[in-house]
Each structure stands twice: as C-alpha cells, then as structure tokens.
C-alpha cells in the first residue's frame, strides 16, 4: 500500500522525490522529517481532511497507509471505510 501511495504524492507534486522508507508504519515519520508534513490532532479517520495521509500500525506487519478522499480512502485499493488497524497518525502538508 505504501508503494501505491508514494506514487500519487510524487505525481501531484506534494513531495519532490519518492519516499524511501520500506514499511508503511514508518511513513508518517518520513513525511514529517523530509517532506514538510505535520501530524494533525485527528484520531478519527473520518475526520481527516481530504488529501491527508493516514498511517496505521501493526505489531508484526508493515502497517498500512491510505489517502483520505472525498468519498473514502485509497491506497492500493479504494474503500468507503478506513483500515481497521490502529491509527498512528494523520499527516498533511503544512
């Protein structure tokens, strides 16, 4: 999923280069450190602003990343509901 989110971020000009972190659960840290994103005080995925990046954790898995859209959430698939994994943070370009 993180690979599928990286490409639209670059294509839209939101980031200037392709993020390098391999695991989805590392995405938020990299977006803040290298690309000018800020972690928003949002804990409900449905309240995330359109265009924000939602990062989810997982104990023994790479996690999950999706982008909030007007109609739901998108990563390597589209969904009207957010991931069920624990939300690590909502990130948006400042």
Question: Your description of this structure?
Answer:
- With 94 residues, the protein is α+β, with helices and mostly antiparallel strands.
- Helices cover 20% and strands 26% of the residues.
- The protein has helices at residues 2-11, 27-35, and strands at 37-40, 53-56, 64-68, 73-74, 78-79, 87-93.
- It has a six-stranded antiparallel sheet.
- A hairpin with a 3-residue loop joins strand 4 and strand 5 (78-79).
TL;DR of this structure?
The chain is α+β, with helices and mostly antiparallel strands and 94 residues long. It has helices spanning 2-11, 27-35; strands at residues 37-40, 53-56, 64-68, 73-74, 78-79, 87-93.
**Helix vs. strand class:** alpha+beta
Specify the helix fraction band: 10-25%
User: How many strands?
Assistant: 6
Count of DSSP-assigned helices: 2
Q: How much is the radius of gyration in Å?
A: 12 Å
> What is the overall shape?
globular
- Uncertain segments are none
Average pLDDT works out at 95
How is the biggest beta sheet arranged? 6 strands, antiparallel
The strands making up the biggest β-sheet line up spatially as 1-6-2-3-4-5
CA distance, first residue to last residue: 23 Å
Strand percent estimate:
25-35%
């Amino acid at each position: 999923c993180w690979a599928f989110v990286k490409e639209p971020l670059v294509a839209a000009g939101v980031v200037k280069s392709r993020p390098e972190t391999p695991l989805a659960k590392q995405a938020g840290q990299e977006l803040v450190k290298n690309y000018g994103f800020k972690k928003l005080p949002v804990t409900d995925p449905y309240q995330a602003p359109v265009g924000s990046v939602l990062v989810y954790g997982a104990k023994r898995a790479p996690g999950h990343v999706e982008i909030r859209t007007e109609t739901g959430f998108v990563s390597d698939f589209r969904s009207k509901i957010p991931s069920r994994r624990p939300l690590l943070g909502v990130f948006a370009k400042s």
